[in-house]
What does this fold into?
Amino acid sequence: MHFLEEYLNTFPNSKYVYVIRHGLDMAYSSNKGQLENFGNFYGLDNSEVITKTNTDSVCKLHLDYWILITKK
It folds into this structure.
């Protein structure tokens, strides 16, 4: 989804199916890969994510990330 605009420009007849996961489920998941890899593209300081620990601040940051990408 991060490159959707480029894909649609290249393949204008493409279809995109967006499957969304509940934000709280994502925030409290131990999988922080999306946040770690793409958080900085959305202006989020993801340096604490490296610990992979579900601290309150990491979960809030992950929820903030989910909100940003969902709005996009």
About this structure: The longest helix spans residues 56-71. Residues 4 and 16 are 8 Å apart (CA to CA). The mean pLDDT is 87. The chain is about 45% helix and 0% strand.
